[in-house]
Amino acid sequence: MTDLPFRSALELAAEIRAKRIGCRELLELYLRRVERYNGKLNAVIATTLDAARRRADEADAALARGEVWGPLHGVPMTVKESYDVAGLPTTWGAPEFKDSIARRNALAVDRLAAAGAVIFGKTNVPLMLADWQSYNAVYGTTNNPWDTGRSPGGSSGGSAAALAAGLTGLEAGSDIGSSLRNPAHYCGVYAHKPTWGVVSPRGHALDGRVAYTDISVVGPLARSAADLEVALAAMAGPDEVDGLGWRLELPKPRAERLADFRVAVLLSVPHGEVDRAVQDGVQSVADTLAKAGAKVSDRARPEIDTLEVDRLFRSLLGAAMSGRTPDDVFRRNRERAAALAPDDMSATALGLRAATLHHRDWLIGNERRHKMRLKWAEFFRDWDVLLCPPVTTAAFPHNHEGDPFSRSITVNGKPRPIAEQLFWAGYSGLFYLPSTVAPATLTPQGLPSGVQIIGAQYGDLTCLRLARLLEREHRGFVPPPGYEAS
């Protein structure tokens, strides 16, 4: 049996309900692990220990009375730094917000607590949640537990590192450009990017902002697919305003057995070339499905041009993120964008144009986006999911030089622009589609590599069901070496 700190949140909750371990006892176990291992990882960067201990004691007392608060009763968990947690700062890694103390919890945090979780801290992020790494001037650098010289991903990098090392029972993160998905892939855990709008992001914002950001979602990370289902159910649904008019009812999974799934597979594209080791991991999942009797195709695709998807995603992503930009930075970006040569298609140029996009140009791009959404809907009439890589490589060495989007990584032995990874974020994210990342294999270097399972809009439960079946039939979470339970 898996050692206790590495068990799924549902297994931990079962241990608590069976009274084989107490809620306070389990919390203290994780706190000792944070004390022992967090020094070399820097994943957990803020804690609320007094409140967590009171909450754990209350959970024990409730259980003694025969009360079960929910499916996560007594399970200790952390959340990404970008969520508001009452009494803790919400900085998004920016020094100017280091004293910005939240007065109340984000809605998703309250909902996870209502499901029984004991929230004891926050995990690290990159500056303004805008990197495939997790480092900032407020909290420093987070390391990957599989290789501390490598990135755990970003922007939910601290979340994935803490889960993989057994420092927490469950996590909540966010995603606009693969910020849930690439950390799960790099650290060998599970993550689910919900359909846009399924989970209210209220309280996942800086400086009291309340408008929902285009493309951006919040969602769970975990050590099992079943945990993702439970956490999504806890987090999902409208806020108190939207809830006056609508209720969420996600469709049931389209299939119950591997043999019943209809699966398309995309391993690489020229403008988002994928390292062979990562391709092999995705192919191994496809082979497992084919062997089980599923209908698998490496040719089925939505009828959209992938290069157009890539360019459009970068444009609308930059526009969505530009609302975070200070006025003086925006003015400089506008001047720099105006000075660009028309044929400059570098990552920096594309980023500047996106960050200063005129609203009319956004509307034109949005119309193109929604026409492609309809092509995805046509595709999902015949196919249940599409499998593809989460990003282009396994975890890469730390590199803090220059602008995040100007760096390179090594793909198939050659340097490639790191921004090419954005294609695999936008292939689902641009169109509001759900996607689950699950472990697929270990690379020849001994690093985790995952698979991205993309489903139809509101097909979240289909993605999660396939991930659960693959957990049993292909590969599940495996702890990194060096984080023993003793």
- Biggest sheet descriptor: 8 strands, mixed
Strand content: 5-15%
Q: Any idea what the shape is?
A: globular
DSSP strand count: 15
Unreliable spans are none
- Strand pairing plus helix content: what structural class? alpha+beta
Neighbour order of strands in the largest sheet:
6-8-7-14-15-11-9-10
What is the subunit arrangement here? single chain
How many structural domains?
2
Helix content: 25-40%
* CATH classification, class level of the largest domain: Alpha Beta
Order of H and E elements: HHEHEHEEEHEHEEHEHEHHHHEEEHEEH
CATH architecture of the largest domain: Alpha-Beta Complex
Q: Give the CA-CA distance, first to last residue.
A: 15 Å
Mean of residue pLDDT values: 97
**CATH superfamily grouping of the largest domain:** Amidase signature (AS) domain
What is the CA-based Rg, rounded? 21 Å
Count of separate DSSP helical elements: 14
Question: In a few lines, what is going on in this structure?
Answer:
With 486 residues, the protein is an alpha+beta fold.
Provide the descriptors you would attach to this structure in a database record.
2 domains; Amidase signature (AS) enzymes; alpha+beta; eight-stranded mixed β-sheet
